[in-house]
Amino acid sequence: MFDLLVSPLVQVIALGVASIIIWHLQGRGRPNARLVVQIAFFLAMTAILAGNRISPFKFEPIQEVGGTLVAAKLLWWVHLAWSTIGFIRIYIVLDGRPIEARLLQDLFVAGVYLGVTLSILSFVFGIAIGTLVATSGVIAIILGLALQSTLNDVFSGVALTLGRPYGIGDWIILADGVEGRVVENTWRSTHILTPANNIVVLPNSVLAKVGLTNITRPDETHLQILTFRVRPTHPPSFIAEAMRRAMIGANHIVHDPAPGVALMGLDAIAVEIELQYRVSRPSDRNAARNELIDLVHRQCTAMDLSLAPPATATVVMENALAWPGTAETVKDLLRANWIFADLKLEELEKLDAAARPRQYRSGDRVLAGAETSLMIVRSGVVAAHRNGAEVTRLAPGAIFAQVEGIDGKAISFEALTEVEVYEIDGPTLVPLLEDYPAIQNHLSRHLAGLAGRAPAAGNGSVDGKHAFVRKVHGILGR
Questions:
Q1: Domain 222-302 adopts which CATH fold?
Q2: Which CATH number applies to 166-214: 3.30.365.10, 2.30.30.60, 3.50.50.60, 1.10.287.370?
Q3: Cα torsion for 51, 52, 57, 61, to the nearest 10°?
């Protein structure tokens, strides 16, 4: 019995079985500890075999050496495979490979298992693997012809994984116009989530052949273009500067690097303009385009510019160049704003008559030291600041006021360009708010939004509705 226990082959078998038991007891949540155990037991088994001059690379007939040596060699080769696979998996994790690198990992694992299987057949059981490889080659040719399309997708997936033109979470645009975010990458296909919230499944062989644009790298900011035509009633440089100022007021575009204005052409009917701007992410494209279209329209109205018909228009309007756009009045600006959209015409005319124009240069403080007053931007861009940080930008048509006490935090306003505003003072504003509680409630919510806080739910009580008016009364001494 003692001789059996000190037998090196029995010790190797015991170490191999103990390693398997401990490996399973550790669980899948400890991959590093599992690898350490595999390596430790494998080195111990190797040391015992080497110390007793037993080579796992030499075939010995089972009739001569018995089943103990076969079992020891078999366990040694299995542990060699597991240790190698553990190294591969740890390397891929530490190397920071993305999730789709699992495909590459599976290829390595398959190669290790195939090599170890062939080694066991040759060195343990003495099977001539040359004949086996030749036979399997014929079978592989037959399977390859039968699975040509599938294998094409598989190897294309391998090439895409090694080249890494995209990763999970990247937003890609294909040459045929399909675009979306990559959500899964399998052996045969890549799954793309489109803006329509549909999953498009594309074979890897198709992706390997088609051109694609990855707008997530180096980051998701990417260039967008808006093209339109303006009647040449002013010099092109004046129009370009007006459009540049309009873009300064946009909140859905990236301002660093600054957006650009390109004059693309000039004829007797129009100056063709191209606005070049960046958005932070693909989901901002529609919001940015909608905002810029609105800002361009407002800027054209404020600067007496008129949009021109398209170049393909077949109808030429009589005196097309003689009728520039008419600048919006205070009444027009108020009516276009949702806060005052329900005012009666006579009330709008009163506010129009009471409004006074004010001009500010770039960098000037707007409403600095003012009491209570309402401001309407006619042209230019104003930035709203809270605690020294910019919270939003106000373009032509925007409404703001200087009323401290909302959210307990004052907002300051600074002109980013030359600005022209209409000012409505407190004595004119307060009676209107008293007569229209809904308007003062909307205005209070709007100013709270400028302060960077969403309006609280249920802010419809009498005290909440009239808090803004009471604050105005306190400032006016009423």
A1: Alpha-Beta Plaits (3.30.70)
A2: 2.30.30.60
A3: -170
